[in-house]
Amino acid sequence: MAGWNGLKGLVTEEITQRREEGCCVEGFSEKWESAGEDEVKLMSVYNELISLPISKDFPFDEPSELEEIRAARPNGPRKSAVDLSEDKLRDKFYGAWLGRSCGCALGKPVECWPYMAGLDGRPGWKNVQLWFQGADAWPIQNYTPSESQAKDEFGLSVLKDSKSLLEKISFMETDDDIRYTVLGLKILEDKGLEWDSWDVGKLWHDNLPYRSVCTAETQAYLNFSMVTSHCNATKDAWKEKLNWVRTYLNPYREWIGAQIRVDAYGYGAAGNPELAAELAWRDASFSHIKNGIYGAMFMSAVISAAFVEKDIDKLVEIGLSEIPKNCRLSHDIKKAVEIAKQASHQVELVDTIYEAFKQYNPVHTNNNAALCVASLIFARGDFEKAITTAVLGGWDTDCNGATVGSIMGAMLGAAQIPEKWTKPLNDTLYSEIIGFHPIAISECAERSFKVYKKLQK
Fold first, then answer.
1. Per-residue model confidence as pLDDT tens digits over 243-269
2. Mean per-residue pLDDT for 440-446?
3. Could you tell me the CATH number of the domain that includes residue 283?
4. Per-residue pLDDT for 454 more than 60?
5. Do residues 17 and 101 share a domain?
6. Are both 25 and 88 inside the same structural domain?
7. Which of 66, 310, 319, 358 has the greatest number of CB atoms lying within 10 Å of its CB?
């Protein structure tokens, strides 16, 4: 079985996924256990799972197609005038790219299981706190130290080969959160608005080696390879193949992968959250469904709106206006907003968010989106507080730091991001994408600005 998980692992994840989608999965854990490692029996269990109907009492409305999503969304502004000088607007584009890089770099060294899923009964966020405390670097005010007393006291460690550690950082190292932002820029440069999920698959095959994708992206990449391996595979038949590509043996279809891929669409559609959400849908629908798509649409809309709106509450409302009003993600984000407004300090916030959403996998869309929103609300416009809260919260640390940093950077502009966060990056990122390895972060920003100008026409 190609990919990051064997068939037995995929099927047990599918049980969880079907339950979250509103299906009755009673007895399936026993069937899964009974199947052992027999792939024929496991596939029989899998085929039963994917045939299950959604329970009639499931309280949510969660379509995956764009027109159905739009029909289920609340009212929203859809588009706002960008009334800024070109210099100020360029500063915001640079801020967005810089902010994404800073947040990603902060979270990169702790993107490992003890900080994502917890260790020895401690939640992931607590281990993040212990690492920084043990390094005499608490509260978090800079990049992640490479050494900490928490190593001996609690058996913790960070990613020692990470180039983003405090003592090493001199550029934004390659990372999926950066690669997908670059690819989003690339497809907008190459195709403008004339592309769909088929083109996303071709873009990945042309630019991403299989080793660089994971979870939902791995399965969609593999499935797309099977579709395109046939000599008669053309874009004309894509609508018939899409749902199979994004769902077959893909229990990760509501995880965070699509949510981290959409920043460049928010940049290109600055001030136009409806368009940003649509572009995110085109990309996300290649590998995700339902809440996996909504997370991408929500974040892309928020990023787009952040170029013209500084009120975080309004930004969240704009994001919510582009997804179904009665989906799980919408309810979870509203809950996160309430938690953030009641929290009196950072630790209280991340602890309460953890307790509220710990039922999700550490790399699910909903819990990570909730943490990002709570961090933004709690920070009240403070860049450092926003990214450090997002990373302290655990789960997908670099993804959340990057997303929150991107939103804050677009809102504030590069000039207002503290130099202690931006200077160590030396205006440089590496992406492993040809033509963007290395590249100046400021050049990426300028190219996004030019894409924005082109899309305005």
1. 999 999 999 999 999 999 999 999 999
2. 98
3. 1.10.4080.10
4. yes
5. no
6. no
7. 319
Section 147-166 average pLDDT: 98
Burial of residue 47 (CB within 10 Å: 0-12, 13-18, 19+) is: exposed
Same domain, 33 and 74: no
Give pLDDT tens digits for 48-70: 999 999 999 999 999 999 999 99
Domain that holds residue 320: 66-109+172-456
Amino acid at residue number 409 = G
Whether residue 273 sits in one domain with residue 217: yes
182 shares a domain with 46: no
Average pLDDT of the residues in 15-37 = 98
Q: How far is CA 367 from CA 116, 288, 372, in A?
A: 12, 16, 9
Asked whether residue 134 is assigned to any structural domain, the reply reads no
Q: Is residue 2 predicted with pLDDT exceeding 60?
A: no
Half-sphere exposure at residue 341, Cβ-oriented, CA atoms within 13 angstroms: 8
Say if 163 falls within a structural domain: no
Is the pTM here over 0.85, yes or no?
yes
Are 84 and 42 in the same domain?
no
In Å, how far are 158, 186, 270, 454 from 191, measured between CA atoms? 40, 8, 18, 11
Same domain for 264 and 205, yes or no, is yes
Position 430 pLDDT exceeds 80: yes
What are the beta bridge partners of residue 428?
440
Contacts of 157 (CB under 8 A, 6+ apart): 112, 114, 151
d(CA 368, CA 434): 30
* Together in a domain, 444 and 412: yes
Q: How far apart are CA 130 and CA 136, in angstroms?
A: 10
Cα–Cα dist 347/126, whole Å: 9
Nearest in space to 141 (alpha carbons), one of 446, 373, 389, 327: 389
